[in-house]
Amino acid sequence: MAAPFDLKNDDVVVIVGSGAGGGTLGNELAQKGIDVVILEAGARHEYEDFINDEWDSFAQLAWKDKRTTSGDWRVAKDFPNLPAWIVKSVGGSTTHWAGASLRFQEHEFKTLSTYGKLEGANLLDWPVTLAEMEPYYAKAEAKMGVTGTNNWPRLPGNNNFKVLKAGADKLGYKECHTGNMAINSVERDDRNSCQQTGFCFQGCKWGAKWSTLYTEIPKGEATGHLEVRPNAMVIKINHDASGKVTGVVYADKDGKLQEQKARIVAVAGNSIESPRLLLNSESSKFPHGLANSSGQVGKNYMRHTTGSVYAIFDKPVHMYRGTTMAGIIRDEARHDPSRGFVGGYEFETLSLGLPFMAAFLNPGGWGRSFTTALDRYDHMAGLWIVGEDMPREENRITLHKDEKDEHGMPIADVHFDDHPNDTAMRNHAYKQATALYDAVGATRSFPTPPYPSTHNLGTNRMSEKAEDGVVNKHGQAHDIKNLFVSDGSQFTTGAAENPTLTIVSLAIRQADYIAAQMSAKTI
Amino acid sequence: MVTIYERKPHESRNGLSRRELLKRGGVGALLVISGSAVISPEHAWGLETAALKPETMATLIQVARDTYPHDQVPDKYYAVAVKGHDEMAAKDPAHKDLIEKGIAELDKKAGAGGYRGLGWEEQRVTLLKDIENSSFFQTVRGGLVVSLYNQKELWPIFGYEGESYSKGGYIARGFNDIEWL
């Protein structure tokens, strides 16, 4: 059963956020007998409550609190107050994610050494290597039930995948399959297998897709060492005169401010909220925000170089049937500067329902060019581009100067400009994807601009040296020993792969480190 | 209140014969105005307005179709998609002003027969292009993205099947049934 902990209990580890990072860390610590309170800004919706309807589900799960945007990215024009498509609910964005679980490539932990200095990019090597991460990747894959690992079969390919595969074969791509997905291809872990329902982004009503909501969290709660407190929006982290953090202030379900004391605080609110919280926790001792002696908090915001290509065929496809991200091509994920850019990208199938296709195919578009595309909705196939984007100091999360939320906390502004490398990569991917669908007989293709960001990364980066970043190789703040960052904001660089598997692996590793440090009484 | 009501074909409202309705309807004779209602005699539905002039509503329906033209989608769905503007106009005078003035300007630009009097879609779209960046057009267009395409009754027309959990997903219902590759 869930263990309710007292607000004054200063022995607990407080984790802000219950997604891939926070939810996993919470369970891992609870399994070791460490008391944990997870404060989650959103409500708790169990998987049977999920809704097979795009707008209704968006209303149920999405983080809709106002944010502002600036920069040359098209999202700032089309969705100025919705820079990110992420979740405010117990389970965080693991309720919404597609399930793609790919390990980073070796060179992606060493981008500065591999790519060299690039003007306008703040490249840096991770203080961690692939070899160090491999045992944790293996633990994460086993925990999450990743297909294509541990002898779990890959998922069967749906119609959208079959079109992708036919095009991949025509273009001579070699590595095309139905992916490494944290979606049960067989019943396991007391959860269903995938029923090809097609609403992965709206929360899996079968519980077949891994989410902390119905795996890590109930397992942690069962130990008696984990309490998840929903509708608890953390607005400030407190510290003592020595600079150690002592607890957090949060607005409870009634909007009333509470303080939860803590021995350790781990921040896992995704890459917009985590730096927002650190910046908002400024004090006379830390006038630029917590853990910010480097000045890097909020900087190096990355969102992957993304985009989609949809194509129409003369015969039906019904791409929306079955797993949303139903297959992958990995050939372009390599680092090969002869293509005109550093780093690489993945192709992954993607489908939107009719309502979201209308909203995202060409935001702002109208007239026959637009509507004749939708007229052939059931003849469409589609894919998503996900590639490594360049970290830039100018791409950053800041606190809005004037606007505040209902708790009086300044709202976040998200600034993003594409690096020329990002643009070159996206254009290459558009060209390849268009050629791929042409090879299968597409009559028209649509290079579709990036959606509001689902992969938000890098705003509390990990670094070897304290002056280069916010946290060390364990996600521990360089400046404050008992303050940790446990989400994708600790990524030094973004790699080409979907981030969740790496976030989970880092959280498992961080739990080992925190437990060891607690035993050694260093924190 | 805006209400969309079904009518039996060829049944007239307020004693108007179908022929009379057609006569009043103007060039296209697709939508006619009767009292405070917009009526589609061909397709047996009507829409009553509360705040906006029924003529304005009829033109707004045409603007909606010209913005997101789907020849296989009946007018009724466009009427449903824009009826929210009448509801908003009833609550907010500024919104009423935005819509009435926006439509009046389109009618003025169109000349003698008004916007609905222009026979070809291209003629009407040319006028819309001119006001593409206006708050009137952006309000109407932006609203349509959700109010038109989120009508479940309309999804089958596009071959979108919607909710699938209650049917057991697609594992036994064609998730991999493509045959032409």
Low-pLDDT sequence parts of chain B: 8-29
> What is the mean pLDDT of chain B?
88
Question: Roughly how many Å apart are the termini of chain B?
Answer: 52 Å
How many β-strand runs of chain B? 4
Low-confidence stretches of chain A: none
**What is the CATH topology descriptor of chain A?**
FAD/NAD(P)-binding domain
Distance between the termini of chain A: 28 Å
* Number of structural domains of chain A: 1
CATH fourth-tier homologous superfamily of chain A: FAD/NAD(P)-binding domain
Radius of gyration of chain A: 22 Å
Q: Which shape of chain A, going by the Cα principal axes?
A: globular
Structural class of chain B: alpha+beta
Number of helices of chain B: 7
Largest sheet of chain A: 6 strands, antiparallel
Radius of gyration of chain B: 18 Å
Overall outline of chain B: elongated
Percentage of residues assigned to helices of chain B: 40-55%
CATH C-level class of chain A:
Alpha Beta
Chain-averaged pLDDT of chain A: 98
Indicate the proportion of strand residues of chain B.
Answer: 5-15%
Description:
The complex is a heterodimer of chains A (523) and B (181). Chain A is of the alpha/beta class. Chain A has one domain: FAD/NAD(P)-binding domain (3-Layer(bba) Sandwich). Chain A has twelve helices and 17 strands. Chain A has helices at residues 20-31, 54-61, 75-78, 111-115, 130-144, 159-171, 216-222, 270-280, 354-360, 368-375, 420-439, 500-519, and strands at residues 13-16, 36-39, 68-70, 176-177, 226-229, 233-239, 245-251, 257-261, 264-267, 305-312, 328-329, 345-349, 380-387, 396-404, 410-415, 444-448, 483-485. In chain A, the strands form four sheets. Chain A has a six-stranded antiparallel beta sheet with strand order 4-11-12-13-10-16, covered by helices on one side. A five-stranded parallel beta sheet of chain A has the order 5-2-1-9-17. A three-stranded mixed beta sheet of chain A has the order 3-15-14. In chain A, helix 6 (159-171) packs across helix 11. The longest helix of chain A has 20 residues, at 420-439. Chain B has 181 residues and is an alpha+beta fold. Chain B contains seven helices and four strands. Chain B has helices spanning 18-24, 54-67, 75-91, 93-110, 121-130, 135-147, 155-158, and strands spanning 3-6, 32-34, 37-40, 45-48. In chain B, strand 2 and strand 3 form a beta hairpin. The radius of gyration of chain B is 18 Å and the shape is elongated. The chains are: A alpha/beta (523), B alpha+beta (181). At the A-B interface, helix 6, helix 9 and helix 10 of A face helix 6 of B.
